[in-house]
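Long-time lurker. I teach an intro course on protein structure, and each term I like to show students one example going from raw sequence to a predicted 3D structure in token notation. This year I'd like something fresh instead of my usual example. Would anyone be willing to generate the tokens for the chain below so I can use it in lecture? Attribution to the forum is fine with me.
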Amino acid sequence: MQIVSGGVTDVGRVRTNNEDCYRIVAPLHLFVLSDGMGGEAHGEVASALAVETVVKHCIEAIDNPAVTLYGQQQEAWTDKTKRLSSAAHLANRKIFSSAQEHADQKGMGATLTAAWIDGPKLSIVHVGDSRAYLLRSGTLQQLTSDHSLVAEQVRHGILTAAEAEESQMQSVLLRALGSQAEVEVDAEEHMVIARDILLLCSDGLTRMVIEAEIAGTLQSEPDATQAAQKLVDLANDRGGSDNITVIVVRIGAESKGWFSWLRPGARKHAAENGTAGGK
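-- Reply from a regular --
Happy to contribute to a lecture. Here you go:
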């Protein structure tokens, strides 16, 4: 499988600091995104700690598969899913411990959505309301379930999806890294095929841009980094009420044929590691 990826983060039009963080580890096909919470309680610290912990834990396991696994793992999971889940649990512990040790960090937390592609197998771990989507044959499928109050109310029929979009409680999370000593982590495995497009994003995108527009942008822009930038621009055009972070991952066959329509230099540019915290 050939993987082309790109990411963009932006402070938005309202916030003064960027509490989002992301990292693309192109050689490993590892993609990690986190949205920090806490404002003056250092949400940007929490998101950076989440991303760096996940990346470091996964890289260490490449060299030493015997590195300790944290949290409960299912036997049926692949090694990469187990390691990604372990990394999420470890990140939770580190954020929680840091907040306990530093009074000014009390109340900080972070979402986490991370993906690891190994051949045709896609491993996803998720906590919070940042999302992962898969675009296949023109259909955009949300792979993750929001761990938010309004999403739970929609699932139980208390609110309609339209009512949830207008709710003042959208930012209330039921699960986040660092809020408790232990956290429940969602982990899933999917199969990917040539021409699939994977999207990871913070809620700064999904609150501003509808899914049909997201799908259309991903389909119309072949450059992964430019597609991410266009989605960020759309969110800002709609008001940019929050930080916006987008990672786009295009999956192709081993042959070069599927990439022949990419602009010259796009592969090299899109495969670069992303920056974190709006830098």
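Some talking points for your students: Residues 79-101 form the longest helix (23 residues). The first strand starts at residue 2 and ends at 10.
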